[in-house]
Queue: 2 jobs
Job 1
Amino acid sequence: MLHEVTEDGGLGFCHHVLPGLLPPGYHGPLVVAVDSNVLIDLQQHGAALMNDEPLPDRVAADVAYADELSGLADLLNLWLLRDIRFVVTPRAKTDAKKVTERFLERRLPSINALADSLAFQVGNWSVPAPSHGPSPTPVGEVTGLPDGADRDLVLEAQAVGAHVFLTRDRLVLERAELAGPPMALLPPQGLAADLLAAGVQPLLGGTCDGDGCPYRDWGLPAPDMGKWGGLLSVLE
């Protein structure tokens, strides 16, 4: 279900335009697995990003971090109208060194919100989101990362069929080497830059319009806006 073309999801993407992110012959949504650090960014700074408000001084002072948040804002603005399916995998619920009640109170609403938004995009409320199912069986291997949450999250993202694992973790970005089904490991700014370079915009770009392309005669200007509700509800 994660990769099926649906009207509720909106205009998707094609391999021909994004060969570095999508498998050959693919036409459909861009599936992005979200690392815990990005999930926290969404909750803490999402409202400011969506409203184009200035970041707190202490955050803005960290130029590299502010740049990543700017990339995340670009992705959120694309997500509003394009079929980008943000997913969280089960390990995201337990990747803290010590899972506390306060941790769960802050983390779980965000995970549930992404699941609600995803349900609108797939158009099928009976299909559980990856975060609500059991840990998927690995379909590949990863080297360069020690046993632990980082390694588990990458493997889970690959197992659910994500095209991108979105993370700010430098250890993952610099050292992880994947074998098996292709999946890009990118920070928010990197993914936003790749989409921009491919000509992706909120209402056009990113599709091939070739024979057999489901988006060739796509007449819907926007997806079901119900998908906005879940994610936007938890942005602080």
Job 2
Amino acid sequence: MSDDRIFESPRCIGEIPGYATHIDEVSKAAKYLKYGGCIGIALTGTASAMKVQEVCRAGENEACEKIRFTEAGSFVGGMGGGGVAVPLASRLAAAPICAAIGFGSGGIDGVVCALVVVGGASVAGSAGGGWAGELAGEKVYQRSQ
């Protein structure tokens, strides 16, 4: 027996061929996805700033002041809504549902399920938070007048 074979893991009954490779690939993808969130935040902030700049260039002071409040509220609300929705979805929906799916399929479907559930919650939370933040920004603007 060569020294290389000493460190090999024994094959277990029912082991899924290529499973470790798939998990490795999912782990690498998750590392890249976290950078996607930062890029998304930067793009959203830039889009909001451009919208404010576009309205303010038109020269109407009242519209310019209002869009500053509503865009700031929308941005903050969107970030907050997504930040609240993701942990809730992870604990309440993704963990029990996707664990059951993953157990039945050998794991890969559970990981995909978790990505879909948490990603969907992030989008929904950001959209709802952005809408609520925009309304709040409009109310603050009205009270400031």
